[in-house]
Amino acid sequence: MNMARCKCNLHAGQCTFREGSLQCDCEHNSTGQDCTRCERGFKAKSWKPGSYLPTPNGSPNTCDAAGTLGNCECYGHSNRCSYIDFINIVTCVSCKHNTRGQNCQHCRLGYFRNVSAELDDENVCIECNCNQLGSFHARCNDTGFCQCRDGSIGPKCEDCLPGYSWRQGCSPNVCDDEFLLCQNGGTCFQNQKCLCLPEYKGVLCEQLLCEGERGCSGASASYVSLAAMLSCLLANALLRIVTAC
């Protein structure tokens, strides 16, 4: 084994062969094959290689815990901090990349954590992109799922449950071609209403227009008689035209 490969920036006293390569046994809250960065939960910007100075013992330059007083640690999302005297903390100011929090370690409302990215990655927070009409608000949970309104479904609330149709959001169907069938020859129009034949009424055209009313039969008979008379007049007129020719 070639121990010359063991270069650990003075953050390890030995190396071991792991996962097919020689890797440092890191100390001082550092990590990586050559101990080139701080562990999770420790300040990324506080990493420095160990030093032989001051003599005779040198300095390990241990990674500081995130959130401790001292250096301004914002995971690269801000370069300004402010000291709040009455609660004795240092907090980041004007966090960028859609982050927030004392150390810019949380995502703004309307964004969620990209679990595949490190805290110091510019893409650590992903926009929720909730559908404005299908969801209650622009916020989502830690996995990016939005809170949907009644009838809406999907990670972003952009689809409708069965029995609902999209009309500026998901609305219950009044009629359809499967369960809520229009009756008595009616036709379902865009799942919003049944277009009934002249003699029927109701949400699903389920009632006669004059059902239970006096004169209903007479009115229907008069309607039929009038239609028959008009048909006869039209037929006679056509017959005269043909005879004249």
Automatic annotation (TrEMBL):
Listed Gene3D superfamilies: Laminin (2.10.25.10)
Highest rank taxon of the organism: Eukaryota
Domain called Laminin EGF-like: residue spans: 128-172
Ranges for domain EGF-like: 171-206
Cytoplasm keyword on record: no
SMART domains the UniProt entry points to: EGF_Lam
Entry-linked InterPro entries: EGF (IPR000742), Laminin/Netrin_ECM (IPR050440), LE_dom (IPR002049), LMN_ATRN_NET-like_EGF (IPR056863)
Disulfide bonds: C128-C140, C148-C157, C196-C205
Keywords noted in UniProt: Disulfide bond, EGF-like domain, Glycoprotein, Laminin EGF-like domain, Repeat, Signal
Entry's Gene Ontology BP terms: animal organ morphogenesis; axonogenesis; tissue development
PANTHER family recorded: NETRIN-G2, NETRIN/LAMININ-RELATED
Subunit structure and binding partners: Interacts with LRRC4.
Name of protein: Netrin-G2
Species of origin: Hucho hucho (huchen)
